[in-house]
Amino acid sequence: MPTEKEMKQAIQTIQSGGLLVYPTEAVYGLGCDYNNQAAVERLLLLKQRNVSQGLILVASHVQQVLPLIKLSDQNELARALKTWPGHNTWVFKATDRVPTWISGAHGTVAVRVSSHQSVKLLCDTLNQAIVSTSANISGQVTPNEINHIQKEWGTAVDCYLDQPLGQSTQASSIRLASDGKVLR
User: Which of 14, 85, 112, 135 is most open to solvent, judged by the fewest CB atoms within 10 Å of its CB?
Assistant: First the structure.
């Protein structure tokens, strides 16, 4: 578990519009406040990722994602709830509360309710979901050691939460909530 000082720095980083590298179930994530357009644009620039692709949001509890998802039927949420908390991302139709710099060109939002203790503590303290994308340049391998990420990005990232990764060996699955189809 992160120390109180480490967590306070991570929280302040997100709240002040900064970029944070943090551990997830399988890889280090790069995150920020999804409502902060300047922070998201900075993240996308660092990753060399096009805004049209959209970004995943990670939360500590389903209550943090419910205002962001539009359900066609209750089966969509039921599919996701069977896998949460956990290492599973679900793509839902987005509500008007999801900024276009998160939904990209899709009109959808990809969300995950994490089981990783550091992520849960971050999102619980912030009382909201945060951006969760792999801490790498798009299309490249994600380093599984934080010191490699620090060497790559240095001060371009405002805070590195150096905590252990979870036990998963692959990035989260991504599925459509509408029918369960696996996208990744």
Answer: 85
